[in-house]
Amino acid sequence: MNNSSRTSGNLKLHEHKILPAIYAFVMIVGLGGNGLGLKSLLQKWKSLGYINVFLLNLGIANFLFLPTLPFLTAYYFMDSKWIFGEVFCKITRFCFNLNLYGSIGFLTCISVNRYLAIVHPMRMMGRITVTNSVTISALVWLLVSVQSLPDIFFSKISPNKTEKCYHTTSKEYVEDYLKYSVGWTLTGFVMPLLILLGCYGHVTLVLCHANTIKEEVKKTVLKLLFILCLLFLVCYIPYHIFKNLSLYSRVLSKQGKCPDWDEGVFGAHQISRGIVCLNSVLTPLVYLHVKDFPTRFQQLLQRTRQIFNWPKSRSGRIPVTQSDKV
Q1: Residue 182 — very low, low, confident or very high, per pLDDT cuts 50/70/90?
Q2: 8 Å CB contact between 215 and 303
Q3: What SS3 class is residue 317?
Q4: Using one digit for the tens of pLDDT, what is the confidence trace for 242-264?
Q5: DSSP character for 154?
Q6: C-alpha 84 chain-centroid distance
Q7: Structural domains of the chain sorted by starting position, each given as residue range(s) with its CATH number in brackets
Q8: Which DSSP symbol is given to 49?
């Protein structure tokens, strides 16, 4: 089964109607949301402390992808006819990957940061500075770029001149791309996911067993952690599952085998591609527009110190360090 037959019938609804509609929505709302998010970040720069470096890079990752959406929207509205050349096709796909895995990377950094601040406050004190955050951010960009770079060397335009701009690669190289995609999924998504779940799971246990933290503060933080995990799972897990299943189905089709689940997986993959783009809309809203979160988080850190019997100053107050500004 070739790609042209895969998109026949009802499948065209996914690729040529639903997907460009989601792209248009993300472009409009994402630009406004990220603009307001960065404005809020600048206003709260001092109160957020060194965690603002990760938030800033999260916003940059979103802005790298959003300007490419008008071209992708036009592409799918024109029945998958790419008129902008292979070089720009690769650029748009590369920007998508930088946004996706950059967002995952910086969400993971923020998760580890909060985990250390709540569960290991003594180790946190004075260990992480703005300079360290900048260094970590640079390493994240480097790792994401190295992971995404091989994608550029795969063919994105079909040799039979069908004017397609492939999200993965053309039929000729699909076997090699499947191997690359599976490895990329493990290092770029599964490992960060396990780190995030481990961090937030431990934080949840600490908060649930902490008697010195006010219930209101507990509920606020736990609610936010739940939302973050839910968004992470909804946006990223379906995309990676159906992307690899779709590639595997193309490999089987190339070998003359037509799996019964091919059309269902292809349609689900198209929808998941739209859903994963919503992270450009949701992440700034979660991290920058949660009411009074910086203040509540500082209160939580102060309460956490009491759990670990932190020494007090002579005035009887709990010493305030840079980690209070997380």
Answers
A1: very high
A2: no
A3: coil
A4: 999 999 999 998 888 888 888 88
A5: S
A6: 27
A7: 3-307+318-325 (1.20.1070.10)
A8: G
- Closest by CA to 26, choosing from 18, 44, 209, is 18
Q: Determine how many CB atoms are found less than 10 A away from the CB of residue 299.
A: 18
Distance CA 73, CA 171 (A): 23
Produce one character per residue of 233-253: b if its CB has 16 or more CB atoms within 10 Å, e if not: ebbbbbbbebbbbbbbbbbeb
Give the orientation angle of helix 279-288 with respect to helix 262-277, to 10 degrees: 40
Contact 236, 294 (CB under 8 A): no
* Residue 248 Cα distances to 19, 55, 252, angstroms: 22, 36, 6
Q: Tell me what the mean pLDDT of segment 183-195 comes to.
A: 94
> From CA 236, how far away is CA 221, in angstroms rounded?
22
Measured CA to CA, the distance from residue 205 to residue 208 in angstroms comes to: 5
| pLDDT tens, residue by residue, 58-108 | 888 888 888 999 999 889 888 788 888 889 999 999 999 999 999 999 888
Q: How many residues does the chain have?
A: 326
